Amino acid sequence: MFKRILGEYAPTFAGFGQHDSHECINTILDLMGEDLYRKGKKPYLEIDEKPDQDEFEAAEEAWHKHLVRNESIMTDLFHGQFKSTVCCSQCDRVSVTFDPWMTLSLPIPKKKEDKDFYLIPYNIKQNYMNFSYKIKVGGSDNMRTMRRIMQDTYGLNPGSFVAAAVYNNSFSKLHTTSANLLEVAEEQGATIMYEIDPALNPVLPT
Q1: Which of 5, 96, 143, 159 suits a disulfide with 204, CB 3.0-4.6 Å?
Q2: Closest by alpha carbon to 114, among 135, 141, 142?
């Protein structure tokens, strides 16, 4: 009975085919939220981006706009807010948005693997020998995670180096902070961190 009624309101779930359970629960909560909306007609709201707006104010404004169109007991119980940060690899422009969410998809944790990374200091002394750093890497870790581990474990400033893929004695590419750490570690060649001149006081962008 419940499946038949759900199919009437959401045709995607009509019939006897297999469907994604996560999509199903989202649809049910959405429909309940619509029925339990506390106000009358939903107002139209424009979405405008303000690059110089304070992040706290931007989050408050985004959440207020979401509540105006979705105020219900379902929102009170199930809704939250994400902060999304996107950095353009071409112009380094950073865009920050605040988006609502209702359910979270979390990966099943997997056992982390030890991977080797190498650091080349800016000032190389006589008789220098390469030293590998072993870091436990998981599927959801990125290069920013690696920088944090280097700081916490080895006391290395997270913004004091650039990380590059080196293969056949040639640079393949520079890794961004969002690059997946496991994919980086499993690429051909080696991942080498090159220390930046300390006199430049390098810092990692937020």
Answers
A1: 159
A2: 135
- C-alpha 177/C-alpha 200 separation (Å) is 20
Sheet architecture: strand order including 170-174: 132-137, 113-120, 190-195, 161-167, 170-174
The answer on 90 and 56 residing in a single domain is yes
Which residue from 12, 11, 13 is spatially nearest to 3, judged by alpha carbons?
Answer: 13
Find the domain containing 144 and state its range: 113-200
Give CA–CA dist 205/101, Å, rounded.
27
Query: What pLDDT was estimated at residue 196?
Result: 92
Is pLDDT at 206 greater than 70 in this prediction? no
Tell me the per-residue pLDDT of 122-139, one tens digit each, with 9 for 90 and over. Answer: 988 888 888 888 888 888
- Considering the domain architecture, whether residues 60 and 80 belong to the same structural domain is answered as yes
pLDDT higher than 80, residue 110: no
**Domain annotation covers residue 205:** no
What CATH number is associated with residue 169? 3.10.20.90
Q: Sign of torsion, CA 150 190 183 81?
A: positive
